[in-house]
Structure formats: C-alpha cells, structure tokens
Write a structure and sequence with these properties.
heterodimer, A: Peroxisomal Thiolase, Chain A, domain 1, twelve-stranded mixed β-sheet, 11 helices, globular, B: 186 residues, mainly alpha
C-alpha cells in the first residue's frame, strides 16, 4: 500500500496546490451523532448514538431545537470520550442558519473558545480541516469539530413554511435533522480493536461555479466542485483513486452522483467502484419519499460520525477520503438571479495502530 | 536629436504596453467565452440527467384532487340550501366554509400532504390560497404578532394579492375607456 507521507512534494506538509499532509499526527479521539426520527428510521438508524423523537427537541422553536441538538451532541461527546470541557481548547462549528444562530445559542453554555464557520453543507470537513491544522501545528491539544442541520429550520429559511403545501422537485433533497461532532487530538487514547483513526491530509476546495441556477437541483450545482476537489486531491497527493478504500461525498444525491462520476471520468479517473454518497445512504428514498436523497451539514456529519467511523474501527475501511459538498446560495442571491456555486472540502481519514504506524 | 530618440523609445514602450494589454484583454475574453461555453454545455447535460416529473400522471392526480374540492364545495352549497340560507348569501357562505376547512386542515398538517399528492389540484383553488396564508401564520407566530405573523403572513400570498389588485385596476381602466367611448354597453 502506498504511504501518504511519501507523497509530500513540498516542505512542511504542503502538498500540491491546495493540500496539506499533516506532519504531526492528528488523532480522532471521539465521535458522536445525534439525529431526528426520520433519520433514525432510515437505513443507517442503528449506527447513531441517539435518535430524538421530538422534532422540537424539547424546546419552543425550530432554531432552538437545532441549538439543543448541538448542545446535546457536545455533552454526549464529552461523556462518551471521557473528556472534561476544560480539556477542549477550541470548537470549530457551523450550521446553515443565518448568522450561525444554531451554533451561537447551542454552544454558549460550554464556555469553550469557538470559531463559527459557514461552508454550507461542506462545514463538517471545513471544521475538521481547520481543527486538524490547529492540532498538528501544536497550538491545541484537543479540538471539537461539529456541524448540524435541522429539516424544519432549514426549510423555514431556504424554502417555505412547513405547513405550506407544495410539491418537491424530483432532484430536490431532504435536509437531515442531526448533529455530528468529533474530537481531534494530538494524543491517541481511544484505540478500538488495536485501531486508531488519524486525519492524515486535507484538501481545501475552491468555489466552483458552472452556472447552474436551479436551487432545487443542488446535486448538479455541487458536483463540479466535488469533482474538482477529488481530482485535485489525487494530483496533490500524487495518488490514484484506488489509494482510498472509499471516497465519500456529502450530499450530492442520486442526480449529483451520476454527474460527479461522469465529470471525473472526463478528467481520467474512475471512482465508481469505491464511491459513496452520504445523502443517498442516509435515507431510503423510495420508502421515505426524500427524492434525490439527504442534504444539509448534518447529513455528512452524522454519516461520518456513525456508519463510516464505525466501519473504520471494525476494519472494513482502511483509508477514506471524506468530501462534504456545499451549495453556496442564499434566498437573496437566488432571487437576484445568481447561479449557485458549489464548494467541497476533503479530509483523509486513515486507520493506524495506536503507536502511529499504519495498521495491517 | 536626442529628444527625438527618446520620444521614439517612449512610443515603442507605449506600443508594447498597449499590445500587452490588448493581448491580456483578448485572453480574458477568450477565457470568459470558454467558461460560458462550458457552463452552457454543463447545463444542457444536467438537464438531460435530471429526472422529469410524469406530467400526465400529475395532471390526472391534480384533476381528481381539484374535482374532489369542487364536489365538496357543491355539497356545502346543497346543505346551505337545505338550511334555508338566502339564495344570494349561499356563494359567500360556501367560500367561507371552504377557507375554514383549508385552514383547519393546514393546522392539522393534513393539507400539505394533500398537495404533495394532488399538486396544482389543491394549490389553485381558494383552499390553496387559504393554506398559503395560514402556513406562514403558524410558522412565524414564534417571531411575535407584529414582526412575525403581521409582517410575514403574506410572504407567499402577497404577490398574488398585489398583482391581483393591479390587474383588476388595469381591467377597470380598460373597461372605463371602452365604456366612455361607447365601444361596449354593459
């Protein structure tokens, strides 16, 4: 198997034009996913840490509900990975709401320094990238990366009030209610079955705009960004698609999946054998009427923090390229006739043995 | 002589500069054209791979849904007749009852499900309009009576009201002009 360290082409971990290979190890030492009822009933249901039946999460408004999701996720994360909140140096977090109110009100009680991020639905990888940089550079020992979304608060902000009757386009997606969070640390203390997970590299995405204006077809808006990022990751790290056991995009859905595979084929890469999309996996689209699949920051975050990491610890995947994708639109930009640019960020997760060398 | 030479030199530099700039300009235009071409091709491709709704099936569903709402309206009218409501008031009562039904079904979260199935069949009638007013009222109640319900209740229905009034005003104007010149006698 190729070794990622041998791919460093520039000094100090800078690889290619937009990637970094972390010279000091970054370990994933905790992860939690909390989702809503519909996600719990989906195919990944048994993998989630907690399924909350009440869509309001015991609060009064949708925005508060999303904040509560974040708050509960952080509590559970600390509890599960046996950290005290004083151990956490920073939180990198984001959501989809205007001015990041879910994050502001969800995390205020923790008294931990916070960086609020907006990367549309790509936020989880953006948070993990920055958290990894922070840990690898030695400026933090334990950092939380977190992202959330809520179907009702997103629907209210980007589409129509919930009780308004309308028909969803076949290419549209269903925003996932859920919050996923990981702890990234400079030391490894949670090996499972002799396995630990390291963040070994990241590729930061550019804003890619192919002029698609249909906000009901976000898969098509984001697919060029995903293809661009995946191809850049291959060239920057000087690897081929089979370097990864799995390449996972965030929420391209069934339409976007088809497009991204085609775009990468045109660039000379065939990833159809080791490709997966969180949006397609999280719901059973035929039974749950979610059209093209799931979406939202929460979609990729909870899929990573349940099924994907679970499979990695179980030894099914050795190395994953995790690529959440975001559609950079607002209702204002859309109404003013702008196209919907996409962005994608990539993080490489790798199974290692606790001593820091590759497992197997 | 020296001055002339200098002038020549300057001219050359200037020419080089403009040529360079023109070249860059052409290059930028070229890139822009390429990008536009790429975007057009991509949009065409996206259009091909995006699933299209089944129009015939949707029309039939809409027809059935809309038809059911009309039948319900007719039933209301017949009932009102039975209860000896004055003939001229019956349409008014029917409208009010249709709106009431729609608002109740909206509050019980049943109306959106009807529309998910029936599409335009339940969007177009007056019940759809009532739904589009009741839904924001429920959603924005949390933001207060003034800035929530008050300001946002017509977020969906507002355009219909505004342009509806504008259209009736224009029609009225046309009617007035035609009537004044004796072109129509109604």
């Amino acid at each position: 198997m190729q070794n990622i360290e041998s791919c460093i082409t520039a000094n100090d971990g800078m690889a290619g034009k937009q990637s970094v290979i972390f010279s000091k190890p970054v370990y994933l030492t905790g992860y939690v996913s909390i989702v809503g009822q519909k996600e719990g009933q989906g195919p990944l249901g048994k993998w989630f840490d907690e399924i909350i039946e009440d869509p309001m999460v015991g609060r009064d408004t949708w925005e508060e509900a999303e904040s509560e999701l974040q708050a509960r996720t952080v509590s559970r994360l600390l509890e599960k990975s046996q950290y005290k909140k004083e151990d956490i140096r920073y939180i990198f977090a984001g959501d989809l709401l205007g001015q990041l109110i879910a994050t502001s009100f969800g995390l205020e009680k923790y008294d931990i320094p916070v960086f609020g991020l907006y990367g549309a639905c790509s936020t989880m990888a953006e948070a993990m990238s920055l958290a990894s940089v922070c840990v690898s550079s030695g400026y933090a020992d334990n950092v939380i990366a977190l992202a959330s979304s809520h179907f009702a608060s997103a629907e209210k902000q980007f589409r129509y009030p919930l009780e308004y009757g309308n028909q969803r386009a076949l290419a549209s997606t269903w925003t996932v209610t859920g919050c996923g969070a990981v702890i990234l640390s400079s030391r490894c203390n949670n090996a499972q079955n002799g396995r630990a997970i390291r963040i070994t590299a990241m590729t930061t995405g550019k804003i890619v705009d192919y002029g698609v204006k249909d906000s009901m077809n976000m898969g098509a808006c984001m697919a060029p960004a995903a293809a661009d990022l995946i191809a850049s990751n291959f060239t920057d790290l000087n690897v081929t698609p089979d370097f990864y056991d799995l390449i996972v995009t965030g929420d391209l859905g069934s339409v976007g999946k088809q497009i991204v595979l085609q775009l990468l084929k045109e660039k000379g890469y065939d990833i159809s054998n080791n490709y997966m999309d969180c949006g397609i996996e999280i719901f059973d689209s035929a039974k749950q009427d979610t059209k093209a699949g799931g979406s939202g920051c929460g979609c990729s975050a909870v899929t990573l923090c349940s099924y994907l990491l679970g499979q990695m610890y179980a030894g099914h995947y050795q190395r994953i390229l995790f690529v959440p994708t975001g559609a950079l639109l607002s209702t204002v930009s859309y109404n003013e006739g702008k196209s919907v640019p996409g962005i994608a960020h990539g993080v490489v997760l790798e199974c290692v043995n606790p001593a820091g060398k590759e497992a197997m | 002589m020296d001055e002339e030479k200098q002038q020549d030199n300057l001219d050359i530099v200037w020419n080089k500069d403009t040529m360079q700039k023109e070249k860059e300009q052409r290059f930028r235009e070229h890139i822009r054209d390429k990008e536009q071409e790429r975007n057009e091709q991509y949009n065409k491709y996206v259009n091909e791979v995006t699933p299209k709704p089944d129009s015939v099936g949707d029309c039939i569903k809409a027809f059935i849904t809309g038809g059911c709402i009309c039948v319900y309206g007719q039933v209301l009218m017949e009932l009102l007749k039975k209860f000896n409501v004055a003939e001229k008031n019956i349409p008014l009562w029917t409208t009010i009852l249709l709106i009431l039904t729609s608002v109740l079904l909206t509050g019980l979260n049943i109306y959106p499900r009807i529309t998910t199935w029936g599409g335009a069949g339940s969007l177009v009638p007056i019940t759809g309009f009532a739904n589009s007013v009741a839904a924001p009222a429920i959603e924005y109640k949390k933001e207060g009576q003034v800035f929530g319900v008050g300001a946002k209740i017509f977020t969906i229905a507002g355009p219909v009201i505004l342009y509806g009034i504008l259209c009736s005003w224009i029609c009225g104007l046309i009617y007035w002009v035609l009537h004044t010149f004796g072109l129509i006698q109604i």
